[in-house]
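Batch job 17 of 40 flagged for manual review because the log was empty.
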Amino acid sequence: MRPSGRELSEMRAVSIETGFTKHAEGSALIKMGDTHVLCTATIEERVPPFIKGSGLGWVTAEYGMLPRATNTRMRREAASGKQGGRTVEIQRLIGRALRAGVDRVALGERQITIDCDVLQADGGTRCASITGGWVALRLAVDKLIKAGDIISNPLISPVAAVSCGIYAGQPVLDLDYPEDSEAGVDGNFIMTADGQLIEIQMSAEGSTFSRDQMNSLMELAEKGVGELAELQLAACA
């Protein structure tokens, strides 16, 4: 029995609210259980120096957690004068994941920055950030298309992410914090809506796992990403 009472292949309740902020070109508040992340998209008519003049667009991301997103207060990273290694790793992951679903030629030489701010954390914040971040990205791209700034839609496919792991010896979908902290195996699966893999982060934490278990987790991830992609498209409709 999972601590939440969910079935092994059952996601947490997921909701996506668009237009959550006034000024951003795209915004979405995603809730995956008790993990809540605000994702905003900002369009800029510039690109990083290393692709300037190439005609290619760029999608990047920044990630952060509010001090009381967790059960004890965390010090703001700005107070220490630098980002922690976990923050840097996660925001690079979000940027890589979202770029995989973008035709950068069609986007044109401009940058879209996705800001992901964790309001409340209960496991799976990076997965929620990627899933909600794509919705914010889609809304920003829709504005570019409506304004006539780009001719064709540069978004190849929805991109979503979900965690899976081995908890109490069983493969489970969408780990919350109690499961994540006790799981013998933990993984994040980032995929397109049609099941193409973008990235898998997988590690054993106290126990090993077999090829059959890995395949079981893959099947759970495909199910979860499929459900998330439907929610993404419904939110953007």
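Reviewer: the log was empty due to a logging misconfiguration, but the result itself is present. The longest strand covers residues 35-44. Unflagging and moving on to job 18.
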